[in-house]
Specification:
137 residues, mainly alpha, Photosystem 1 Reaction Centre Subunit Xi, Chain: L, two-stranded antiparallel sheet, 4 helices, 2 strands, 3% strand, elongated
Length: 137
């Protein structure tokens, strides 16, 4: 079975992130919250790319699927961490919010800048797409 290049890159990044998780410690500093934003960007972007590549029938909603997949994973992790440590709910909410912001950024940028444009089906049955042209004077 041939594994394509994009999937191998995504798998290696995900494996590297999993390998580094045990050595990380969290607090409410800027760098800690930026790591949550980065994790959300990674999950949202990779999910958007996977939907584009392997589920072409959902290409029009690929960014939303990437965002909501990240949101579901973050919500489950938030629930687990809150159940384990009920003293730091505000910190967990901050982590959740940063992760959701990162997921939105990752899904949007992957959809708009890294993947090919898609045709949108209008309610009247016609199809359209947009092209942006810039000319500097």
């Amino acid at each position: 079975m041939k594994i394509d290049k994009y999937f191998r890159k995504s798998l290696s990044i995900f494996t590297l992130c999993l390998a580094c998780m045990n050595s990380l410690s969290a607090n409410n500093s800027f760098t800690s919250e930026m790591s949550h934003v980065g994790g959300g960007m990674l999950i949202g972007g990779i999910t958007t790319g996977i939907v584009d590549r392997y589920f072409p029938q959902y290409r029009e909603e690929r960014a939303w699927i990437g965002f909501w997949t990240n949101a579901a994973i973050a919500a489950v992790l938030f629930g687990i961490e809150t159940a384990q440590d009920r003293d730091d709910v505000s910190g967990e909410l901050l982590d959740l919010g940063c992760n959701l912001v990162g997921g939105a950024i990752g899904a949007y940028t992957t959809d708009k800048f890294f993947l090919a444009p898609i045709l949108h089906k209008a309610p009247d049955g016609s199809h359209n797409f947009g092209i942006k042209a810039i000319h500097r004077f």
